[in-house]
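Everyone, describe these structure tokens:
***
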Amino acid sequence: MSGVQPDLPGYELVSAGLDDLAAGRESESALLVAMAAPRLRAVGIDVPQGGGEQPSHRLYELLTEADEGAHSRYNALVARVVSFARVAEHASAGLTCSEPGVLVLVVQGERPR
């Protein structure tokens, strides 16, 4: 997986974060992707360097500055990127979703009946 699959949950957020990191822009999505960079790189997503030494702290500061209920917003954003990473990990491991909330292991390239 060299890029972001558009059918994964949170695609828009991760894609925007990758674009912002590549352009050197600090944004909620860029900081979020920087936080998840090791996990995203592990599944083959090319994550540009950036986000500073502690992107999680900077993201919280940025959300606090926007005065949008930083704590709940932060948790929601983290949940979205974790969901994206989890599905990407399952996809790279040969797991597929047959219906929402159900994961099926594909064995030797065969799909379940």
About this structure: The two ends are 26 Å apart (CA to CA).
